[in-house]
Amino acid sequence: MTVGELINRGEATQLAFKGEAAQLALKGEAAALGLGFKGEAARLAFAGELASALG
Questions:
Q1: What would the DSSP string read from start to end of 4-51?
Q2: Of residues 55 and 44, more confidently modeled
Q3: Rounded to an integer, what distance in angstroms lies between the CA atom of residue 20 and that of residue 2?
Q4: Collapsing DSSP states into helix, strand and coil, what is residue 23?
């Protein structure tokens, strides 16, 4: 195996890790957004219950 092949392999590995990291970051952001929406929905539901209890 030549030095060039080793360098290419190393760069490919590095790119694969970057891709996986980006994918995990996106999954994390999607999960955080999902939790945010759930929290928002719960808050709105609670506000609605409060309004109906007061009204």
A1: HHHHHHHHHHHHHHHHHHHHHHHHHHHHHHHHHHHHHHHHHHHHHHHH
A2: 44
A3: 27
A4: helix
Tokens, residue 9: 């392999």
CA distance 45 to 50: 9
**Whether pTM exceeds 0.90:** no
* Percent of the chain whose pLDDT exceeds 90: 2
CB atoms within 10 A of CB 13: 10
Kindly tell me the number of DSSP H helices and DSSP E strands found in the chain.
1, 0
H or E segment to which residue 54 belongs: helix 3-54
